[in-house]
């Protein structure tokens, strides 16, 4: 596993060297979301009996973690492909499973660091409860793993930065922003409630929020089943791409 450890270290070091941009900036963005939305809606919105600022924090934590997990693996791969340095990763005898685990675990670690930073940065504003820490950790880890793997798919598929930006802007951003971060889906019309149920990111955020308050829009067991299924499918698709060498070795 020396190749795996070396590649993981390289990927962690890559984002940590610019942590002001990769960790601190997303935390600041989440804090701005919280200050603006809670200031405008705090007196008017209460969800599941939870004050709106407290309700908002878990959603912002999860949204920030997911978006940054995706950004880490996708940006690393596309940058390596564009500069040609990906060949130095492919030449050593590193299996495609080690390759997959190193990139995804680094992405997950960045997501965890950003999520922790958002919690520490917003806890002074509204302290959410923590009813079930194990649920919180489970959904945060699974969500980061899924988005890290999806970032690899995007990085493998894209040939240039604007293709990757299109993937992020037209798929990842809508999935994360329209997943119940800022609202309960029960506040939506019936049609849009049903649409939201086809969004796997909704289950990640809803299950994560359940760990804080013990209440959610759907049963946490349902959320866990959907997220676990998504984890298996996305991981299998990513491993299949790596095994085939699609746009990397061929």
Automatic annotation (TrEMBL):
Keyword Nucleotide-binding recorded: no
Principal location listed in the UniProt entry: membrane
Membrane-topology descriptor: Multi-pass membrane protein
UniProt entry keywords in alphabetical sequence: Cell membrane, Membrane, Transmembrane, Transmembrane helix, Transport
Name of the molecule in the record: Transport permease protein
Any one Gene Ontology molecular-function term assigned to this protein's record: ABC-type transporter activity
Pfam families attached to this UniProt entry: ABC2_membrane
Organism name: Candidatus Accumulibacter proximus
Subcellular location as annotated: Cell inner membrane; Membrane
Transmembrane spans: 20-40, 52-70, 82-101, 134-158, 164-185, 222-242
Record flagged with keyword Cell membrane: yes
């Amino acid at each position: 596993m020396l190749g795996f450890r070396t590649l993981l270290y390289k990927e962690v070091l890559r984002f940590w060297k610019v942590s002001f941009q990769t960790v601190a900036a997303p935390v600041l963005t989440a804090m701005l979301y919280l200050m603006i939305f809670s200031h405008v809606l705090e007196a008017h919105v209460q969800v599941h009996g939870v004050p709106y600022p407290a309700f908002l924090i878990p959603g912002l934590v999860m949204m920030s973690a997911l978006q940054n997990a995706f950004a880490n693996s996708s940006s690393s791969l596309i940058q390596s492909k564009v500069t040609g340095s990906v060949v130095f990763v492919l030449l050593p005898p590193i299996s495609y499973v080690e390759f997959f685990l190193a990139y995804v675990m680094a992405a997950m670690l960045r997501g965890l660091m950003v999520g922790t930073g958002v919690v520490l940065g917003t806890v002074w504003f509204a302290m959410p409860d923590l009813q079930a820490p194990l649920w919180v950790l489970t959904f945060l880890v699974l969500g980061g793993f899924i988005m890290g793997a999806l970032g690899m798919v995007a990085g493998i598929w894209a040939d240039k930065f604007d293709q990757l930006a299109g993937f992020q802007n037209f798929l990842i951003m809508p999935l994360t922003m329209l997943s119940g971060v800022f609202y309960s889906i029960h506040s939506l019309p019936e049609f849009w409630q049903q649409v939201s149920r086809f969004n796997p990111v909704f289950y990640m955020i809803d299950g994560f929020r359940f760990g804080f308050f013990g209440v959610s829009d759907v049963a946490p067991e349902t959320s866990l089943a959907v997220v676990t299924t998504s984890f298996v499918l996305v991981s299998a698709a990513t491993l299949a791409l790596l095994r085939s060498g699609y746009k990397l070795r061929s």
